[in-house]
Structures are given as structure tokens and as C-alpha cells.
Amino acid sequence: IGTGDWSSDVCSSDLLLSMLGADIYYDRYAKAFYGNEWLILGFDTFFSIIKRIIPLAYVCRKMRMPVKVMVPTKITNRTLFGYSIPIMLFTAGCCMAASGLYGRILRLMHIEKNKLFEMPDSKAVLVLFLILHIIIIPIISEIHTRGALLQLLRQFGDGFAIVITALLTSLITYNLSTFCYVFVSSLVIGYFTVRTGSVITAVLMRITMAAVSYGVFMIDEFASEENGGLIVMTVMFVILAVGLVSFIKLLIEHSNNFSLNFKGRYLSFTDKCGIIVSSIPVVIGLTIIIIHTII
Length: 295
Known about the structure:
mainly alpha
């Protein structure tokens, strides 16, 4: 029997779990599961994937939106595509640095900051857990957000679609401490998705963001107290340096590829929102995507 105590997406009904004979206990206060880590990982994997796959299939069937339109994969701007990961490193680095500063402020105020992640103790389970949350979930999630949702909203203008998608993605994370991080990252990912014309860009950037977040957390969590802080600072410096140099190079050498027209079309912002509310396909898509995120 394992002794893991890590958070997941799995069902929170102790009665149901006990009826199934699962050696798992859910602490509603800590929002974490305790017990057999393999069972927790199994439930986590099942519910994390199924709650994303079913809504996506439903949207594809009901809206009859061509797959090439909903999930565009052809890269139309390879210059920006090549800069997407370094820029995501810079964005993630800045957000992580801001999060660290936020944590220090809370400590000065004698307030304990909640952990964003709880890792399993077993090394084998940890590896599979990281594969799930760094690779598999980002791929499926980006097909929803920068695929279905963003492409649906692009009919109202690219700038409008990017901002609204980022805002919705941030709001439904139901975590105020990560709102700004998710919002800024979503803006960057949405911009590069539109400018490169491919959801592949969004997937790679999302994986990069997840890898940085989990990587820095693991260093801070598992490294010794004497070296942990220094290692984190070194990693953050490298990430920020690579990202900053790439960003400056992009602005200097390819500024013409970096622009995006955010001007409204013939519709005002109010008109766009009114059409969204009254459009059955758009409402179905937004509702399904929001439901899959908060369940």
C-alpha cells in the first residue's frame, strides 16, 4: 500500500471508491488523495483523458466543423514557429519569477502559500505522472482551447479570439494565485498559434510551459536546502537569458513577422459578444469546453 498524498483530477466520492474496493482516501480540505499511488494514477489518467476526449468528440459531431478548421496543423510561418519555444521559455521564466516574488511576499506576511503540485512518492509512478501532465494532458487541452475554442472565435477577429480565449482559460482555472500566469501564457500561446497557423505550435509551447513549471517545482521540492535555491536561480537565469536573447533577436531581425492586426472588423465588441451569446454552435462549443475544465 502506497502512502502518496498528491492532487489529481479523479472522482472525490469516498463512498464510491470504497464500494469499488479502492484503497484511496480523499481529503476534501487538502484537496488531495491518499493511499495506493498506482490506483490514484490510474483514476487520474482515466478521468483526465476521458473528460477531455468526450466533449471534443461531441463538439466535432454536433457542430460539423471540419477537422482541418478546428485543428489546423499546417505551419504557415516557420520563422515564428522556430521562435515559439524560446519565447515560451521567456514567458514561463518571467511568470515563475513573479510567482517566486509573490511567495516571498506571502512569507513576509506569515502566510503559507498553497502548493500548486503534490508529487507521488514512488519513482515509477512519478515518471508516469509527469508524462501524463507534461505531455498527454497539454496535447488534449490545446486541441480544445487553441483548437476548437480559438478557431470558433476567430470569425470575430484574431485579436478578439486570442484575448477571449486567454480570459476564459484563466477564469476557469478557479485558482486566483495562478490567474495571471495562465492569462499571460495563454495570450502568448494564442498569438503564436494564430501567426503560425498551427495548433502544433500551441501544443509545443504548452508542453514547454508545463515542463518548466514541474521542473522548477521538483528542483525546489527534492533538492537539498543548501543547494536547492541556488539550482533554481541558475535554471531560471538560463531560461530567462535564452528567452530574452531570442525575443530581442525576433524583434530586431523579424519585426515584420511579429505584428498582428488587433483592430476590430465591422462589428463592435458589444455586437461580437451578442452574436456569441446568440450563436448555438459557439455556445455549445464554449459550454462543453468550460464543463470539461471545471469537472
